[in-house]
Amino acid sequence: MIALNRASRWYGQVIGVNDISCRIGPGLTALLGPNGAGKSTLMKMITGQLRPTTGHVLAFGERTFANARVLRRLGYCPEIETSYEDMTGRQFVSMLGVMAGVPTSALQKRTEEVLDTVRMSQWADRRIGGYSKGMRQRVKIAQAIIHDPELLVLDEPLNGLDPVGRREMTDLFVRLAGSGRCVIVSSHILYEVEQMTHSIILMDRGRLRAIGDVYQIRALIDAHPHRVAIQTERSRDLAKRLLDLSYVLSVRLSQDDPTQLEVETRMPDLFYDDLPRIVLRDGFLITGLDSPDNNLEAVFRYLVKG
Amino acid sequence: MTAPQAGAETQVTDAAAVAPIADLSYRHYDGPLKDRKLRWWIVALVGVRWAMKRWWFWLLFLLSSASYGFWALMLFVESRLGPEFRQMMFQSAKDERFATVLFRSYDGSLFWLMVMALVVGAPSIAADNRTNALQVYLSKPLTKADYLLGKWAGVFTVVFAATLLPSLFLYAYCMLSFWSEGFFRNEPWLILRVLGVAAMSAAGFASLFVGVSAWCRSTMMSAAIGAGLYLASGIMAFILWMALHIRELEAGHPAAGALLQNASISGVLKSMAWNIYGVTIRFPMRGPNMPDGLTLHPPNVWVMGAAYSGIVILGLMAARFRVRAVEVVSG
Q: Within an 8 Å CB–CB cutoff, is residue B131 touching chain A?
């Protein structure tokens, strides 16, 4: 759906996006990176608001910059906080619906539908100036989906939403992606991204650091041993058994909790195969098993923070 | 799912009766999407509706219309008091009588039209700049030109209407009251002049204030700069005119330096209207240095036309150069 071919964007001497090539297909993809990583610049290139200085950004096989054909199939929820304080939520969504091409005859019904979808029907006739941050976020999402776009680009869409709102919007994005749309969500809250998708694009200092499934990416990070935390009453005995395995690099017993041990291995798949066998053979009672490295946080930490 | 017990205080709506759990699933839109030709008009309408919902818009409209009402009243009094009053108030050629009245009405409303254009035009782009709302606009099938034209047309429409409506009222009054005195025979093209002045005035104000607005991130700053440009140019032109032509003025030539006198934004707009109406203003009062009274001709149309074009083009260019979807970090 989206193809970036060696796309770069310079702001004078400052580079926003540096030589990025990738393809993004249908489904929900999270765009991650610290502040200044180039996420917003990349989103603006995808939504056709910025022209790449070099390279190409294509959506639906066409260049995106100021291309009305692409924009008709695209919905964008920018990060901006306030706009059109004097309009009501309904007027705002309806006005942008007209701009997106929704015919006047269908506009009222469609506006009502999307306001309902983002749970804003009740407050739709109040001025945006009186909205909370979360309400503003919801009407921005409503205007992005009013024309039922195939490609939805959402810049920090969960900012300002309360926990219930975050959950509702997350569910909405997952549903939209599940129906074959391409949904790109930027966020810096890794926990929430993890609830939404495993498909990520990780950026840092304008460069693409990783793209794909978060677990596959983690498995490819050889430089950092994989950690597994195990909780058992006989932690010292289990530590001895595990140290016999050639691919286990270290086992550390927790000083605070004598039942906790942490194993470092370069071959997590093999480790997960062998662990049940050892446990069953020697009769260990495992009360907790967790991998602090097998999540987005760890991938982010390894790739961005080094 | 069990039915509510008898007597339970449960209010059930019709929709809930059909489906006890609300259907909050995403509903697809499978209708057509229109490729609108006049996309800029959607942007313009936002500005027009915004202005029309403000009480001060209607107050300014009344204030700017007041001078038309005044001159209508003068015409009415003249028609009652006869030719002597006319000689005192309306010395004009036979074929300029109503054009003169319309021009002087416009001249009297110019300040209030400026205030109206300022309060509508100053926030037009500045407010979007402050919130970076252009990102929302340009994520729709809308070009930068559509956006700019829409913003410009929003201000233009408001000022055009505020100039035209009272002019048409006065025109209609003149036509109905003085039909028998050769209204159409003497001034057949007056309606076109009325339209021309309204369009000229609206285009000038819209270009100026939209251009200023594009360079500001705050409505207050935009309004301050716009008003400053308008008023300062008027004051400067007046001071220069007085300083350079004081001797001619003392010698009884008040028309001396007419170009310099109108070398301001208000002067240019007034001069353009003066030329469009094509009238000669005659004041009947006589003084020691003005035994024949005072006669004023419109300033040179080419010079004033060039100055007016400069205001319009500079305003539009400033807006076009400045408007962009994202803030660009300079190196």
A: yes
Q: Which of B32, B46, B141 lies at the smallest CB-CB distance from A68? A: B141
Nearest Cα of chain B lies from the Cα of A71 at a distance, in angstroms, of 5
* Residue in B34, B50, B139 nearest the CB of A76: B139
B325 close contact with A: CB closer than 8 A: yes
Closest residue, chain A, to B324 (C-alpha): A49
Kind plus residue range of the DSSP H or E element containing A219:
helix A214-220
CATH superfamily of A2-214: P-loop containing nucleotide triphosphate hydrolases (3.40.50.300)
- Residues of chain A with Cβ-Cβ distance to B34 below 8 Å are 101-103
| DSSP helix/strand/coil, A64 | coil
Q: Which of A64, A83, A88, A104 to substitute to test the interface with B, most B CBs within 10 Å? A: A83
Write the ipTM. Answer: 0.72
Share the mean pLDDT of chain B. Answer: 83
Percentage of chain A lying above the pLDDT 70 cut: 95
pLDDT reading at A195 higher than 60: yes
DSSP B263: -
Whether residue B136 and residue A83 make contact (CB cut-off 8 A), yes or no, is: yes
Confidence grade of residue B15 (pLDDT, cut at 50, 70, 90): very low
- Fold equal for A2-214 and A221-303: no
Note if the pTM is more than 0.80.
no
- What are the domain boundaries of chain A? 2-214, 221-303
Q: In this complex, is the C-beta atom of A24 within 8 Å of any C-beta atom belonging to chain B? A: no
Packing angle of the helix pair A89-100, B39-52 (nearest 10 deg): 160
Q: What is the per-residue pLDDT for B24? A: 59
Record: contact B325-A95, CB cut-off 8 A: no
**Residue type at A230?**
I
- Lowest pLDDT segment from A130-134, B133-137, B269-273: B133-137
Q: What are phi and psi of B49, to 5 degrees?
A: -65, -40
Across B168-189, average pLDDT: 88
Q: Give how far B325 is from chain A: nearest CA, Å.
A: 6
Q: Measure the CA–CA gap between A174 and B188, rounded to whole angstroms.
A: 69
Question: In whole angstroms, how far apart are CA B155 and each of B46, B236, B307?
Answer: 10, 27, 21
Residues B312-317 have a mean pLDDT of: 95
What is the predicted pLDDT for the residue at B287?
Answer: 64
CA distance A168 to A97: 22
What CA–CA distances, in Å, run from A192 to A25, A141, B212?
A: 21, 17, 43
Torsions phi, psi for B282 (to 5 deg): -120, 125
Could you please report the per-residue DSSP string of B137-159? HTTSS--HHHHHHHHHHHHHHHH
Instruction: Name the DSSP class of B262.
Output: T
What's the topology of domain A221-303?
Alpha-Beta Plaits (3.30.70)
Token pair belonging to B62? 């009344």
Q: Are B47 and B124 in contact (CB under 8 A)?
A: yes
Q: For residue A50, which residues of chain B lie inside 8 Å, CB to CB?
A: 325-326
